[in-house]
Design goal:
Order of helices and strands: HEEEHEEEEEEE
Distance between the termini: 58 Å
Helix content: 10-25%
Strand order of the largest sheet: 3-8-5-4
Oligomer: single chain
Number of helices: 2
Mean pLDDT: 74
Radius of gyration: 18 Å
Number of strands: 10
Length: about 180
């Protein structure tokens, strides 16, 4: 009986963790009290995001990085020509390549206000003494036809202190038409 209850508790925890990421991603917000990252669900968009490369390894608590940490060390990264923003059917696809300090992690918040869509990359964690490469991929689906102004914003914590910087950098700005 004790084993069954333990199994059921584990199942409930796993189901709760998995349902928090399906279709809706979290918006990162720095918490000044504990320097950690809190997340607020954005339920207004049909969207998702992923990260590949060095930041993906860091997110999975993998501290063994390739010797060079360069783009060629991650064959799963899309070619450089696929970077930027594009429309596909009723979706906007965001792809961005980033070279950064090893051990850094990233979360992506996606916000839509009228005809403006903002992809905010929130970089956090202490940086290690090496550089590596990652790509951030995000998609917003089920958009009405029209012209959209799309922004990519990079923000987060200082890689040395891991404290929020409050700085925001516009890393991408483009108009996209959904037909």
């Amino acid at each position: 009986m004790k084993t069954f209850l333990s199994f059921m508790l584990l199942l409930v925890i796993l189901l709760t963790a998995c349902t928090g990421k399906k279709g809706k991603e979290a918006n990162p917000v720095a918490s000044p009290e504990n320097k950690s990252t809190a997340f607020v669900l954005d339920t207004s968009l049909s969207s998702y995001w992923t990260v590949k490369g060095c930041a993906e390894a860091a997110t999975r608590n993998n501290t063994k990085f390739p010797s060079s940490g360069e783009y060629k060390d991650y064959p799963e990264l899309p070619p450089a020509g696929e970077m930027g923003v594009k429309a596909a059917a009723d979706s906007i696809i965001y792809n961005r390549f980033e070279q950064h300090l090893c051990c850094r992690q990233v979360k992506v918040a996606i916000e839509k206000k009228d005809k403006t869509i903002t992809f905010t990359e929130y970089w956090f964690g202490h940086g290690c003494k090496c550089r590596c490469s990652s790509t951030v991929h995000a998609v917003v689906r089920e958009l009405p036809k029209g012209e959209y102004q799309v922004y990519g914003i990079a923000t987060g914590t200082d890689p040395v202190e891991d404290k929020p910087t409050g700085l925001k950098d516009t890393v991408l700005q483009e108009k996209v038409i959904i037909r």
